Amino acid sequence: MSELSDVFYNNLPARRTRLSKLFMHPDFFEPIPLDWHVIITDIKGSTKAVFDGLNENVNLIATGSIVTVLNLAYSSGIIIPFFFGGDGATFIVPPSILSSALERLSVYKENTLSNFNLNLRVGTVPVYQIYEAGFKIGISKSFVSEFFSIPVILGDGLSYAEKLIKAEDYLLAPINNQHYNLDLTGMQCRWDKIDPPENANEVVTLLIVVKQSEQQSKIFSDVINQIDNIYGEPKKRQPISVDKLRFNTTFSRLSMEMRTRIGRVKVFELMKTWLINLYGYIYFRTESGKNYLNRLVEMSDTLVLDGKINTVISGNEQQRLMLAKYLDELEVEGAILYGLYVSRNSTMSCYVRDLVNEHIHFVDGSEGGYTQAAKILKAKLSDN
Known about the structure:
Elements: H1 2-6, H2 8-11, E1 14-15, H3 19-22, E2 30-31, E3 37-44, H4 46-51, H5 55-75, E4 82-84, E5 88-93, H6 95-116, E6 119-126, H7 127-132, E7 138-143, E8 149-154, H8 157-166, E9 187-188, E10 202-210, H9 216-231, H10 234-237, H11 251-262, H12 267-283, H13 287-298, E11 300-301, E12 303-306, E13 309-315, H14 317-332, E14 336-343, E15 346-352, E16 359-365, H15 369-382
Parallel strand pairs: 1-7, 8-12, 11-16
Antiparallel strand pairs: 2-7, 3-5, 3-6, 4-5, 7-8, 9-15, 10-13, 10-14, 12-13, 15-16
């Protein structure tokens, strides 16, 4: 049973159906196995940290929690769904790696607190408990580019798990983690803030929740279709473009990355990394380097569908006002609640296992776009 359970997500077919149509096919969504578990990481006090100017630290720590779990899954030969949230992440994992994932995240939590004075909450809820409470998690896979597929969730189960884990009385059992070292191999954060592509002048970070979960399919389909109509297909609203990428290899940036990865700064390794990055300026002018950059744009994680719509898009003010008008109408009807934040540019952190196919890039609006949009959304949720 365990081996069959381990390959559940790997064996899900990735659909090439347009997202707006995918949501209207309930037969494309499979329930998560009963023996799997939801793990959520979340920086407590992330809103204050962002307002204090620590948004890059917040994004980096969130990315590090993803890399921690993905390196474990990779070494175990297991593919899992995960969702980047700007100030944390959500994973759905089989029982075979649950304990190891929590142990490694516990080590990472300690490192985050000691190096950045930020408290990374880590919690888990069994999928069967979510189902017993009357909530659902259906999952599908969608190709968003030729090489890159994302998990797509229907149901309110992950939101329920998040409420449990973020509750003040939630306690994670103490874990003996003394035998584990940090493994954040492949984590990088070496790009400067990224200006919008040509013909765009702003970056929008958007969060949308549907108030009645049974209406998710129809409303998500309509909203995605409307975003397509206003901003164009995903390639046209992609906030990352090759010509706007700029390396940021200052010692300050590399030191922050190193403290996240190994818990301290090693001067020799810092110098070595800095010198290697100098070669990057040459590499990105080669054919291989140009191919990597083009693939990087395709494999940028700008749309997260975890039972909510979470997306980062680029465009202009007129497009944003059209979208906001449409969303306001849905909100007045009582169909959705949303949070929207406008930035001048975007930020990106990366997980690079190799320079060909094994890399993914996590995108957020600058100034902590996801956290800022979440603050607006939470205020609306508290009033409902």
